[in-house]
């Protein structure tokens, strides 16, 4: 049918991002549009939309915050009359942030492996470490504004739906964990890895945990 053909064509286009259509992945517009297709009635489109966001996270590190910000903006615009969509999308935002953490973990392992491979032995059995080759992406500051993501979690923490509240709480935990991972990576893994973000934040989850103590 015509609808199936259109769905197949759209999935094929999504598969090209960011491999063949890299510039699209660099656009704020695409990170705002793709989350909408994550709730498509076509399961193939839904799955491919999620994979597009994951690929941008993996292969375009400088666009990572744009991905989660686009997802957050989409969730905030969802009507309260659709709590299941809100919960599902919030859960997807948490998964995206966890994937960012996984990417950082992989990059740190890769960095450590590169350091080991670049070690050489000089006379006297002393070890030297040669600097890594220049990577143009490393000159770009990594953006992460924890306060913006905390605000999203706080909004839905006041929901009347208990499942949404639970997911919002998990989001707040993930914001803190991701921010700490980015900070640790910038301090310990790469001397050329710069972090662009606000002053040391006060996490909402810290306040909640202190009040529970």
TrEMBL record:
Give all residue intervals belonging to the Cell morphogenesis central region domain: 142-211
* Entries under InterPro entries matching the protein: ARM-type_fold (IPR016024), Cell_morpho_N (IPR025614), Furry/Tao3/Mor2 (IPR039867), MOR2-PAG1_mid (IPR029473)
- Species annotation: Papaver nudicaule (Iceland poppy)
Q: Please give the PANTHER family that the UniProt record associates with this protein.
A: FURRY-RELATED (PTHR12295), PROTEIN FURRY (PTHR12295:SF30)
Kindly list the GO CC terms recorded for this protein: cell cortex; site of polarized growth
Name the chain's protein: Uncharacterized protein
Q: Which Gene Ontology BP terms does the record give?
A: cell morphogenesis
One Pfam family this sequence matches: MOR2-PAG1_N
In what residue span(s) does the Cell morphogenesis protein N-terminal domain sit?
A: 3-100
């Amino acid at each position: 049918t015509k609808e199936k053909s259109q769905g197949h064509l759209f999935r094929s286009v999504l598969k090209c991002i960011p491999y063949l259509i890299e510039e699209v992945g660099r656009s704020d517009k695409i990170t705002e549009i793709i989350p909408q297709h994550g709730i498509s009635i076509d399961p193939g489109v839904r799955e491919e939309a999620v994979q597009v966001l994951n690929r941008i996270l993996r292969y375009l590190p400088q666009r990572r915050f744009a991905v989660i910000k686009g997802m957050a903006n989409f969730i905030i615009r969802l009507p309260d009359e659709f709590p299941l969509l809100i919960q599902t999308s919030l859960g997807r935002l948490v998964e995206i942030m966890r994937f960012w953490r996984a990417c950082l973990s992989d990059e740190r392992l890769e960095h450590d492996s590169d350091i080991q491979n670049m070690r050489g032995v000089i006379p006297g059995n002393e070890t030297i470490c040669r600097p890594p080759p220049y990577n143009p992406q490393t000159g770009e500051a990594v953006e992460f504004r924890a306060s913006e993501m905390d605000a999203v979690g706080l909004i839905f923490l006041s929901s009347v739906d208990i499942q949404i509240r639970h997911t919002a709480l998990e989001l707040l935990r993930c914001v803190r964990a991701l921010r700490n991972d980015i900070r640790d990576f910038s301090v310990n893994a790469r001397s050329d890895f710069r972090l662009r973000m606000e002053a040391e934040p006060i996490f909402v989850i810290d306040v909640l945990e202190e009040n529970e103590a």
